[in-house]
Fold this protein.
Amino acid sequence: MQNTGGVRSALIVGAGIAGLTAASALARRGWLVEVAEAKAEGTTVGWGLSLTGPSLRALDQLGLAEQCLNTGYGMRVITNTDARGEVTSVAHPGLLGAARPAMAGIARPELHRILRLAALRLGVRIRYGLSVFRLAQQAGQVLAKLTDGTTRSVDLLVGADGIRSVVRDLTGRATPIDYHGQMVWRALVPRPDWATGIHTYASPRYQAGLVPISANQAYVFLTENGVRPDVLPDIELAERLAGLLAPFAEQVAELRPLVARSASVVRRPVQTVIVEAPWSHGNSLVIGDAAHAPSPQMISGAALAIEDGLILAEELDRQQDVPTALKSFTDRRWERCSVVVQTSVAISRLEQEQRHRDSYRLIEACHRQMAHPA
């Protein structure tokens, strides 16, 4: 992809939430955008996620919030039940007005479908089974060599290729991935009628919960403490998760048979990444989980990723050249993203210390801070 006729060109590595959002935001401003995704078309990891208020606010700027709300499940409240059975409910800030939900659960494949179709409608080219293996800054552009043997010379290269980012390493931003002694389980189940918001439950050992992602579906989660990040056979996952849920009572007991029958169970390590500033090198930049991956307890990874795409496009419009815009982007994003990552690490520690009330308060405070404009 060459810069011809004065049209600015961008290559985005990664067709996840951050990459597709950035692609749409840039294409709306007249950029010629290509996305390279290493995975095969239709591959989506995980069953569901939560779109908090900041996620919906950012999606609204792309004209996609209503579609996500209609496809997912709109909610207003998180209900926490601690190990002693005491219940507290937290109403999340409604950033789209009182008539619309404050947050939404949504199936990951559905969110990716919405973002992908939006990018394609704007003329973005998405290529699957393709990544980058060499980068060089050359005459004010980035020369990228791709895994199919082709090359691209572009005005901007964006690494949105996740927590194990190749672009991060190629741009000299190699950063350790921190494991926090927890494994998170998720199982897709039918949504119970009583589940109209997010529910969490603490036991003397673990934290569990339920997140609706559509009118008919939800996912059960459990955070397992003090374990190694090993891999278990897929065939064992449903039965083992149902066993881990045995100490929980009442509503969780109702979910156990659903989990045992679920054909969709995953188990993933709780990991975080925060790349020290700057996040750019010349005309190359990392965003989303490649730059700042919080643990799932803060349910804010998607919000940060979507905001990244919009703010990157804004800074490229505001600044006179790409390197200056990328520096300005990092300056604008650093504190907000690092606070979320650091807070998520603190929550992981509090959960393992069985200080669930403290973790609830910290989560609520961070969400209120995130409600402020990015």
